[in-house]
Design goal:
The protein is built from 21 helices and 20 strands. Helix 2 (23-31) packs parallel to helix 7 (122-131), helix 4 (71-80) packs parallel to helix 6 (99-108) and helix 11 packs parallel to helix 13. With 478 residues, the chain is an alpha/beta fold. The mean pLDDT is 94. It binds the ligand O=C(O)c1ccccc1N[C@@H]1O[C@H](COP(=O)(O)O)[C@@H](O)[C@H]1O. The ligand O=C(O)c1ccccc1N[C@@H]1O[C@H](COP(=O)(O)O)[C@@H](O)[C@H]1O is lined by residues 268-269, 288, 290, 292, 295, 297, 329, 331, 351, 353, 394, 396, 402-406, 426-429, 447-451. Residues 265-469 form the N-(5'phosphoribosyl) anthranilate isomerase (PRAI) domain.
């Protein structure tokens, strides 16, 4: 097994390092270092998804990636193009890394530098600092609780932050309990190398708001990065897709733009597997299901289950398409019922489209999208009253039918609101007007139902046209 092999090899190397350079000598070198740069601050000072760009020549899962890269030149390119921190592989046998790369990179850049290695002994923490590292990686899977706490403590005394990596809910809980302030969620299972890009979605809600969350592995496209923005991570750690790129600045731009400047798109009122597939193929980010009986878009919860099961793309884990998240739309229903449906269907977000109060929103066990009616004016105090209770605010046109009428509202009002909160703009959007809406309002996301229908039925061509208009607008917003 890879992990066992690498840890065994690491321990052999470690004994040799200890013989060559006793801890006291290493500690003397540590004392000569300038203070460590603050990784936590670098990842949390701006409200955006930051990029930790990684320097690695090979990996056990992918073999040779970029054996001839110049590590310092690459790190400088990363810094010049907006990386908030640099991660450097120092493991020599499986990743072709080296301590010399780290020391040379540290001298060449001004951002924090992370030692990415398989750290199992406090000697390696001192080693990292002596080489110039500002932060280290600690992997929950190879450390017990006592070791994790001890290594965190040693790093703290040396002024370094730790990126504590989890691969499961249990490991995330261990990282939290150990007091880790920067928690990485690695989509790649270190034992099987299998990818689960949706692990971050499952783990994010477990991690307290005062911790910095880093999504790691398998981040290749703008859609991958846009998906991470939905989980409110503070950083993405990217190696492979950068080191193999022929255009590193272009790849970095695409990822940073995907995470921070693109528009999330929700298609609402879905009822069939075919339309679910169309949405996925077209790159929709959120799929909405209406659980409000008077609506012609109403769908019974069990029918949603069946439609998702029959969708070709939703069930294809190896699909090239990033899978959207599922939103259940409810109007003034009981909290217990909403929570039950959410659990049963595996909904990711709950949209509350009635008169639900902030206190009610807090009874919902999923992040809440709270719809607020925005007519010729908007009650900003009302909007702010949901600040702690709702994950996002949806602005819709006032109507007695609650929503889904295909009527627009005043986008100047919406623009003001979008400066105060992360807004999902709804109400009368369609393939023809969505570009203007996005450019004018600059919302976090857009939401459409009527505008992608013909004769009250979803229309695949209109769904594609809507999505294309949104993505084209993202490109010109760069
Ligand atoms: O679509 C419905 O029937 C509906 C019923 C009850 C609450 C909300 C509903 N739809 C929401 O309305 C907007 C879309 O509006 P439009 O049709 O594009 O004008 C969206 O938020 C839906 O979730």
């Amino acid at each position: 097994m890879f992990l066992e092999r690498i840890v065994t090899q690491t321990r052999i190397d470690l004994e040799q390092h200890k013989r060559e350079q006793p801890l006291e000598e290493l500690q003397r070198r540590v004392s000569e270092q300038t203070p460590a740069r603050d990784l936590r601050q670098a990842l949390s000072s701006r409200p955006q998804v930051n990029l930790i760009a990684e320097v690695k020549r090979a990996s056990p899962s992918k073999g040779m990636l970029a054996p001839h890269i110049d590590p310092v030149e690459l790190a400088c390119t990363y810094e010049q193009n907006g990386a908030a921190a640099i991660s450097v592989l120092t493991e020599p046998h499986f990743f072709l890394g080296s301590s010399e790369f780290l020391t040379a990179i540290k001298a060449a850049v001004n951002v924090p530098v992370l030692r990415k290695d398989f750290i199992v002994d406090e000697y390696q923490v001192y080693e990292a600092r002596a080489w110039g590292a500002d932060a280290i990686l600690l992997i929950c899977a190879i450390l017990d609780d006592a070791q994790l706490s001890h290594l965190l403590q040693v790093a703290r005394t040396l002024g370094m932050h730790c990126l504590v990596e989890a691969h499961s809910k249990e490991e995330a809980q261990r990282a939290i309990s150990a007091g880790a302030m920067i928690i990485g969620v690695n989509s790649r299972d270190l034992v099987s190398f299998k990818m689960n890009p949706y692990l971050i979605r499952d783990l994010r809600s477990l991690i307290p708001a005062d911790r910095v969350v880093v999504a790691e592995s398998g981040i290749h496209t703008a859609a991958d990065a846009r998906r991470l923005a939905r989980y409110d991570v503070q950083a993405m750690l990217v190696g492979e897709s950068l080191v193999v790129s022929n255009d590193v600045p272009g790849q970095m731009r695409m990822l940073l733009q995907g995470a921070n400047k693109s528009t999330q798109a929700k298609i609402c009122g879905l009822r069939t597997p075919e339309h679910i597939d169309t949405c996925i193929e077209a790159g929709a980010d959120l799929l909405g299901f209406i659980f409000h009986e008077p609506s012609h878009r109403y769908i019974e919860p069990r029918q949603v289950k069946a439609a998702l099961k029959d969708s070709k793309l939703y069930n294809n884990g190896a699909s090239e398409h990033a899978l959207p998240d599922l939103v259940g739309v409810f109007v003034n229903k009981e909290a217990a019922y909403i929570n039950e449906v959410a659990e049963e269907l595996g909904l990711h977000y709950i949209q509350l489209h009635g008169t639900e109060s902030p206190a009610f929103c807090q009874q919902i066990k999923r992040p809440v999208i709270k719809a607020i009616q925005a007519g010729s004016q908007i009650d900003l105090d009302l909007l702010l009253s949901y600040r702690d209770a709702a994950w996002r605010i949806l602005l819709d046109t006032p109507t007695s039918e609650w929503g889904g009428t295909g009527v627009t509202h005043d986008w100047n009002i919406a623009r003001t609101a979008a400066q105060t909160a992360q807004i999902l703009l709804a109400g009368g959007l369609n393939p023809e007007n969505v570009r203007e809406a996005v450019l004018h309002v600059k919302p976090w996301g857009v939401d459409v139902s009527s505008g992608v229908e013909t004769n009250k039925q979803k229309d695949s061509q209109k769904i594609r046209a809507f999505m294309q208009a949104v993505r084209n607008t993202d490109t010109i917003q760069e």
